From TrEMBL:
Pathway: Purine metabolism; IMP biosynthesis via de novo pathway; 5-amino-1-(5-phospho-D-ribosyl)imidazole from N(2)-formyl-N(1)-(5-phospho-D-ribosyl)glycinamide: step 1/2. One of its GO terms (cellular component) is cytoplasm. It comes from Occultella aeris. It is found in: Cytoplasm. It is an enzyme of class 6 (ligase). This is Phosphoribosylformylglycinamidine synthase subunit PurS. SUPFAM superfamilies: PurS-like (SSF82697). It catalyses: N(2)-formyl-N(1)-(5-phospho-beta-D-ribosyl)glycinamide + L-glutamine + ATP + H2O = 2-formamido-N(1)-(5-O-phospho-beta-D-ribosyl)acetamidine + L-glutamate + ADP + phosphate + H(+). Part of the phosphoribosylformylglycinamidine synthase complex involved in the purines biosynthetic pathway. Catalyzes the ATP-dependent conversion of formylglycinamide ribonucleotide (FGAR) and glutamine to yield formylglycinamidine ribonucleotide (FGAM) and glutamate. The FGAM synthase complex is composed of three subunits. PurQ produces an ammonia molecule by converting glutamine to glutamate. PurL transfers the ammonia molecule to FGAR to form FGAM in an ATP-dependent manner. It comes from the Bacteria. GO terms for biological process: 'de novo' IMP biosynthetic process. Its EC number is 6.3.5.3. GO terms for molecular function: ATP binding; phosphoribosylformylglycinamidine synthase activity. Part of the FGAM synthase complex composed of 1 PurL, 1 PurQ and 2 PurS subunits.
Length: 84
């Protein structure tokens, strides 16, 4: 059984209030190395079998048509999860 990871981020021109809130909190918590934060979404799709090129293409299609809002979000990555 394989896992496909889909990562989605707001388009650059879209305001990101959650990212802005996190960016404001980081320095107060001692994390001063970061200039900005953008918050996105991550989906993990389990596959009953191998993650073939056809499965990855289907995952990308699902990401573009169902998992994301193409008006305000970009699908930035569709890949096979690696075991850590």
């Amino acid at each position: 059984m394989a896992r496909v990871v889909v990562e989605i981020m707001p388009k650059p021109e879209i305001l990101d209030p959650q990212g802005k809130a996190v960016a404001g909190a980081l320095p107060r918590l001692g994390f001063t190395d970061f200039a900005s934060v953008r918050q996105g979404k991550r989906f993990e799709l389990e596959v009953a079998g191998d993650a073939t090129e056809d499965v990855l293409a289907a995952a990308r299609r699902a990401a573009e048509e169902v998992l994301s809002n193409p008006v305000i979000e970009d699908v930035v990555s569709v890949h096979v999860a690696t075991e850590d």
